[in-house]
Structure formats: C-alpha cells, structure tokens
TrEMBL record:
Keywords per UniProt: Pyridoxal phosphate
CDD domains cross-referenced by the UniProt entry: CGS_like
Family, similarity comment: Belongs to the trans-sulfuration enzymes family.
Keyword Cell membrane found: no
SUPFAM superfamilies assigned: PLP-dependent transferases
Required cofactor(s): pyridoxal 5'-phosphate
Protein name from the UniProt record: Methionine gamma-lyase
Matches recorded under PANTHER family: CYSTATHIONINE GAMMA-SYNTHASE (PTHR43379), CYSTATHIONINE GAMMA-SYNTHASE 1, CHLOROPLASTIC-RELATED (PTHR43379:SF1)
Modified residues (N6-(pyridoxal phosphate)lysine): 200
Molecular-function annotations in GO: cystathionine gamma-synthase activity; pyridoxal phosphate binding
InterPro entries: CGS1/2, Cys/Met-Metab_PyrdxlP-dep_enz, Cys_met_metab_PP, PyrdxlP-dep_Trfase, PyrdxlP-dep_Trfase_major, PyrdxlP-dep_Trfase_small
Gene Ontology biological process terms, A to Z: methionine biosynthetic process; transsulfuration
Amino acid sequence: MPKTIRAPYLNAVVPPISVSSAYYFRDTEEFRRYKAGEISGGRYGRYDNPSWLQTEAELAQLEGTEAALLFPSGMSAVANTVSALCKQGDRILYTGCAYRNLRTFFNEQMSQYGVESCAICQADIEEFNEEFKKQYDNRCRIVFVEMPSNPHMYLVDLEYIKSVIDPSKTLLIVDSTFASPINCQPTKFGADLVVHSCTKYLGGHGDLLAGCVCGSMQLIDPIRNYRNISGAVCDGFTAFLLSRSLETLGVRMEKLNRTGLTVAKALEKNPIVSRVYYTGLSKHPHASLASRYLSGHGGVIAFELGCSAEEAEKFIDRLEVPFMGTNFGSHHAMVEQCAEFTYYKLSGAERSEMGISDTLIRYTVGLHTPDVVIDDLVRSLRSISLQIQDNRRKSPVVHV
Ligand code: PLP
C-alpha cells in the first residue's frame, strides 16, 4: 500500500487486528501535531497498538474503572504493577494462599530490590484480621489480596482491610482472577487496583495468555510508563482474541456459575467426598463473606476425598470428561490432583501448611451441561468406592 493511503474500512463492526510494529506520519508537520496532542495515533509498537486500546477500554468498562492495561500474562500484569509502584524499603502484605508464583515473585524477586514482603494466612478470617492489624505499618506500600484464593476459594474482608490501612501510603490490589468482573468488582469495595490473569475466565477458550490491571488513570499512568520500558506488551492478535472473548463473558460466567453450583452440591452429597470448597455452599468457611462480596461462584470446585492418595489418582484417571491439566475458566473441563500436579515441587510440610492435602482435587466444569459432568464424577467415585471396599476386605489397613 502506498504510504499516503491510510487503512480503509475503519467502520468495520469487528475492528481490524493491528499487528504493526511502527506507525508513520505524512510529514514533519503531522508529527508535530501528534506531539502536541492535536491528533491521535501511534508512534511505535511497544507503546501503541489500537487493538490494545479496544480491549483495554472493554476491560475497564467490565471492572468499572477509568482505565486498564494489557500484559502478556497474569504474572507479568502483577510483576509490572508491583515493580512500578514499589521502591526500596517498602513492604508488601499479601494473602498467604496467593498463587504460588506470586509468592515466589514477592519473596525471591522483590526482596532483591529491598522490598520486604509478609504473607498472612487467610483460611481463618478472624486470625487474618488480627494478624493483619499487627503486621500493618506505615512502610506498607501494597496490600495484595487474591480473592477468592485458588483453589480453596478463601476470601478476605476488603472493607476491614480498607478501614485499617492509610490510603495516603498504601494501595489495596486485588487479584480477582477467580471471580471475574461478573462475580465481583473489587473497586466497589475499596480496591485501588484489580489484576486478572486473562488466561482464565476472561480469555475463556484456553487459547491465549494475557493479564491486565484496572484502576484510576492516576494509578494506571505510572504502570503504563513502566510497561513502555519493561516491554511487557501483548501482541495485537492476542488483544483481538481477548476482546472477542469479553463479548461472551457474561453468558459464559452465568453458565459456569450455574453448573459450578450444581456440581458442588452433587459432590457435597457423595459419601467419598470428605470436604468441598465452593463459596456457593453454606458450609464454606467464608460463605457469609461470599454473600457480601460475590454475586456468583464460578466454575471451579476444590474437594477432598476420604481415601488414599493412590485411590485419588485412580479417581482422576478414570474420569472421561475433563482433561487432566492445570488451567481453569475455559470451555474445557479440567481436573488436577493439586499435590501431584501444581504443588509437586513443595515438601509435604509446605503443602500441608497451605492446606494442600494429598487427596485435594481441583475440578473446573467447563461449558458442559451439569449432568454430563456429574454422571462422570459419580461413576468414577463409585468405582473408587468399590475399590476401597475391596482393599479393606483384602487388608486390615483402613484409609480414611
Ligand atoms: N493469578 C491467579 C489467581 C492465577 O491462578 C494465576 C495462574 O494460574 C495467575 C495469577 C498467573 O496468571 P498467568 O498464568 O496468566 O501468568
């Protein structure tokens, strides 16, 4: 295309995917007007991309914030956000059940830059509140909360945290990946910034990696400046895929919320299932917080089996519907035995400290109908139950 011709058909219903590494100006006068802010446009692909702008505007709208920024993964959204906002001598307080790599990032990476971090277990909310008040001081730059936590779906009381912190010194950041903006908008409860792994519910098809941070223009601007330098940018095609997925987020979450609850209730009734972690169930330890903060509970259920680790492995191997793998939020059903799959590098003591028992299973329901998922689960659980009875007949050792 000759350089004087601009891209045609900018009124397309689905906006074009922008993959350009650079943007041109007709002449020096046009560039001067661009620098003066008289005309909009891009300058270079690490700073500007119209496909990001489209998707970022949609993300901000979903979270009810002024602005949003895209990143190539959830981890890079967190790493860039925290790096942009912290300086040597600052402190980070974070929920102890936060995603494994986030904990490593805080403890091993941020510590190298003189930023201290401290984890507070959120399994017992009274203990969390007490410890939070004890640990909070005016060096605390960031309180980082993963809510609901993965996979136990533990929550915290955002309004309590907000009542303790000094807003002129401390920012409350919520990783709301497990809720999605359909089930919770943390800024309504005082969060300053919200981060997501868009790889999960927001992407929703298991075919992209992306992350985002949403918040006020004032907080997003320095993070954008940091991203311009760190170069943690996602490509135009991924931005397009994410934008396409956001169009269906509401209907997907509605279905996942319904199926998740139905499957969690069915699991709760099964005699081999010893415990179910799903905030939609009244027995979840944070059910009353859930009624304040969540409008739905999503498609991921964690549960423990009353059997041995080996029997739990067999239960997984005999399932026919889900893929065995470590992702959630897409249309695929997926299952993992957490101790074996995601937490296998940790010692038994570290796992038990985090509440990851040998038979803890994380199941994500996908867009299947509930009956398909439940029939498969019940069939596999029944076969394990028969095996347990058989083992007990053959051996005096009883697994509980
Ligand atoms: N936050 C949560 C709650 C997660 O579960 C994950 C990944 O599983 C991440 C952040 C990191 O996201 P990503 O894998 O897109 O880097």
